[in-house]
Amino acid sequence: MELIFATNNAHKLAEVQALVSDKFILKSLSDIGCTEDIPETGITFSENAKQKSDYLVQHYQLDCFGDDSGLEIDALNGEPGVYSARYSGTRDMSQNIALVLEKLKGKENRSARFKTVISLQLNGNQHFFEGAVEGKIIDELRGTEGFGYDPIFIPNGYDETFAEMPLEQKNKISHRSIAVQKLCAFLNSQ
């Protein structure tokens, strides 16, 4: 079965493709010739994920799913949240990470979570799947794997950041893998 994943993020596509069974072939936005910038104007992860999947159904009439993910930091009242990818006003992750670390200076509570919501549009019906992983933010960047805020996030029960973990290990515990596992269980039941 072919499913369109509303992303052009190669890291995200590879992570999800590694999690889905061989009976699902994922295609990206560029694979279907979608070059438009799909709006993400929601104030929740669910709203943004829904906007992506709705857009593809309306413009391409394809079964698809979209996701929205982000980092929520307790000491920053849930920021950066839905603005994770552009927290500093740019999509430059080094600037986004620098802003998070600056805002956390002097704060003892380093609790945070990565959260993902997937919106699946399949056969004219919409379904949502959510995943979250709790952890903490550290003061220095560690590791070269992963992307986004992975170098400063250590999941609970581990001593390594997501960026220090091999993809296989991260995929066993990440917020995205939890949501994708729920998505795959649903698809397998169809």
What do these coordinates show?
- The structure is a single chain.
- With 190 residues, the protein is α/β, with parallel strands linked by helices.
- It has a single domain, classed as Maf protein (Alpha-Beta Complex).
- Helix content is 31%, strand content 24%.
- Strands 2-1-3-4-5-6 form a 6-stranded mixed β-sheet.
- The protein is globular.
Which CATH C-level class is it?
Alpha Beta
CATH architecture: Alpha-Beta Complex
Q: Would you give the CATH topology? A: Maf protein
Tell me the overall shape.
Answer: globular
Structural class: alpha/beta
Percent of sequence in beta strands: 15-25%
Overall helicity: 25-40%
Mean pLDDT over all positions: 93
The main sheet orders its strands as 2-1-3-4-5-6
Give the low-confidence spans. none
Total discrete domains: 1
Q: What is the number of E strands?
A: 6
Distance between the termini: 12 Å
What order do the helices and strands come in, and which of them pair?
Elements: E1 2-5, H1 10-19, E2 25-27, H2 45-60, E3 64-73, H3 93-104, E4 111-122, E5 125-137, E6 153-155, H4 167-173, H5 175-188
Parallel strand pairs: 1-2, 1-3
Antiparallel strand pairs: 3-4, 4-5, 5-6
Helix pairs in contact: 4-5
